[in-house]
Amino acid sequence: MSKESGKAFDTRLFKRLIAHTKPYRITFYGVALAAILLSLFAVLTPIILKQIIDDAVKGADAQRLLHLTITMLVVLLGQVLSQLSFNYYANWLGESVIRDVRINLFRKMLGFKMKYFDNSSLGVLVTRAVADMQRIGEIFSQGFFVIVADLLKMLVAAGVMIYINWRLALIVFAVLPLILYATRLFQKAMKVAFTEVRAEVSNLNSFVQERITGMRIVQLFTREKIESEKFREINEKHKNAWLKTVWYNSIFFPIAEIVSSITLGLIVWYGGLQNVAGITDDVAGTVFAFIMLIDLLFRPLRQIADKFNTLQMGMVAANRVFKILDTDSSIDDLGHIEKSTIKGDITFKDVRFGYLEDEEVLHGISFDVSAGETIAIVGATGAGKSTIINLLNRFYEINSGLISVDGVDVKDYKLASLRSHIAVVLQDVFLFADTIANNISMKDSAIGISEIETAAKAIGVDEFISSLPGGYEYNVKERGTMLSSGQRQLIAFLRAYVSNPSILVLDEATSSVDTYSEQLIQKATDKITQGRTSIVIAHRLGTIKKADKIIVMDAGKIVEIGTHKELLKKGGYYSNLYEAQFLAEEVA
Ligand SMILES: Nc1ncnc2c1ncn2[C@@H]1O[C@H](COP(=O)(O)OP(=O)(O)OP(=O)(O)O)[C@@H](O)[C@H]1O
């Protein structure tokens, strides 16, 4: 199957999976019992039918006929009940296990370092949490228990055949290797075909996902025709891969049916001969029972390949999911300091950091921000400005040096406590597909609608939000695409403001917005930075000029620190930057 699974059946992996059924032990044993009952009831039917034909009907015994018919009804009822319980509870167990594993997986993902997400594909993680989970569930609902039930059924059916008429049983067993061989060939072919189908489905998924995400580019560059041609090709491959599985099914099942029929013919013929030879006189009932028993033996055999496939696919999925669960990439949260309030002094002391091991991005950054001060960070693209704010709230761990808040190493704070004092407004604002109110309060029950409205009035965005249909209850839909980038940033300002942080980190948007939004943003910026330590990656001259200190960065180093006036006077990097970037803005 896949190189990930290694061997055909991984006992260690299976044991680990079964361990997840521990909270549902009673159901687990209940399903196992239903499987046993199912196989027993299944073989009881042919036995009773044989007795009805050979004893009651032939012997014209009405009393016995009535008893046997009632017994038959009871058996059928038992069969229906055990089938029902088996189906329902095997699925219930599967769904319960995947719910638990999925919750564990998501919890694990919530604790991962940003580095983990930098190196993982979104599509892969979504597949692990959704499609792979379904496959794991199928191990229980369609794989493991069904195989056990089928094997039991086959075993009991074979035993009953020998018991009823061992000579006829031998004929059936003689055909078994032929069916087994055909099944094996079929299984192998289907495995290859299904691997192909899965690869094509995955191609389809990523193609559609990417084109929908990048639809703007597709349409801007008028690539519609080329893309639809490419899509046709992928679809064609997908169709052909599916047809291969249909073809194998179309060959295998009729062949299996023919072998079954030939076996039946042999049974009838040999049974008849036995009757003629006087070896047995209950040939009618025996042949009837054998017809049913053969079906009980051959039908599961034909389907067992499919079930093994389900089991194996589930195991591969489980292996992948467990790999994520075993990943040691969680953020260290070993600090114990929890503070209900902080002043907001920040120190970076000779901080060195790189996203990749051998590629340092910050080369010894040192600066201090006193509580209540606003500092602006400026510099060329790729200089390391965003990296600084990524480090303050411990999205990434530094290689060396020290970052402290109120004189305490950020690592010594409890992570949740540290982050509760820092609000971050990024350029690319992320909004959940939810109401504006929920996007602002982030579902913190302590922040009610009246607090949100008061805060919105304070930073001057109440009017804009109220003008939206439904106001604060307006649903911004996926990723907030219903709003402009300026509007999204205003909502992010409000989100930061209501949490009343001691430290505010703001990455000003570079994209230009209309004058009205610009004014709103400027006013909101002034208001939210007031009275709290603020670190602003500044792109607006207004913000830079008002800052208590400007940190000028170039290629991962701080090249200058000072106020706007001081730095202009100095005539260095900042004054060049000012002339190149901001002078025009000022003149305008
Ligand atoms: N997640 C990441 N993984 C690897 N490298 C990264 C990552 N994020 C940023 N970098 C690299 O780190 C360096 C600094 O990036 P950073 O985003 O801090 O620059 P910046 O000054 O904020 O730039 P901009 O103004 O364009 O946002 C760049 O060379 C960038 O390629």
Automatic annotation (TrEMBL):
<feature type="domain" description="ABC transporter">
    <location>
        <begin position="346"/>
        <end position="580"/>
    </location>
</feature>
<dbReference type="Pfam" id="PF00664">
    <property type="entry name" value="ABC_membrane"/>
</dbReference>
<feature type="transmembrane region" description="Helical">
    <location>
        <begin position="143"/>
        <end position="162"/>
    </location>
</feature>
<dbReference type="Pfam" id="PF00005">
    <property type="entry name" value="ABC_tran"/>
</dbReference>
<feature type="transmembrane region" description="Helical">
    <location>
        <begin position="246"/>
        <end position="270"/>
    </location>
</feature>
<feature type="transmembrane region" description="Helical">
    <location>
        <begin position="65"/>
        <end position="89"/>
    </location>
</feature>
<keyword id="KW-0547">Nucleotide-binding</keyword>
<dbReference type="InterPro" id="IPR027417">
    <property type="entry name" value="P-loop_NTPase"/>
</dbReference>
<dbReference type="InterPro" id="IPR003593">
    <property type="entry name" value="AAA+_ATPase"/>
</dbReference>
<dbReference type="InterPro" id="IPR036640">
    <property type="entry name" value="ABC1_TM_sf"/>
</dbReference>
<dbReference type="InterPro" id="IPR003439">
    <property type="entry name" value="ABC_transporter-like_ATP-bd"/>
</dbReference>
<keyword id="KW-0472">Membrane</keyword>
<protein>
    <submittedName>
        <fullName>ABC transporter ATP-binding protein</fullName>
    </submittedName>
</protein>
<dbReference type="InterPro" id="IPR039421">
    <property type="entry name" value="Type_1_exporter"/>
</dbReference>
<feature type="transmembrane region" description="Helical">
    <location>
        <begin position="276"/>
        <end position="298"/>
    </location>
</feature>
<feature type="transmembrane region" description="Helical">
    <location>
        <begin position="168"/>
        <end position="186"/>
    </location>
</feature>
<dbReference type="GO" id="GO:0005524">
    <property type="term" value="F:ATP binding"/>
</dbReference>
<keyword id="KW-1133">Transmembrane helix</keyword>
<keyword id="KW-0812">Transmembrane</keyword>
<keyword id="KW-0067">ATP-binding</keyword>
<feature type="transmembrane region" description="Helical">
    <location>
        <begin position="26"/>
        <end position="53"/>
    </location>
</feature>
<dbReference type="InterPro" id="IPR011527">
    <property type="entry name" value="ABC1_TM_dom"/>
</dbReference>
<feature type="domain" description="ABC transmembrane type-1">
    <location>
        <begin position="30"/>
        <end position="313"/>
    </location>
</feature>
<dbReference type="InterPro" id="IPR017871">
    <property type="entry name" value="ABC_transporter-like_CS"/>
</dbReference>
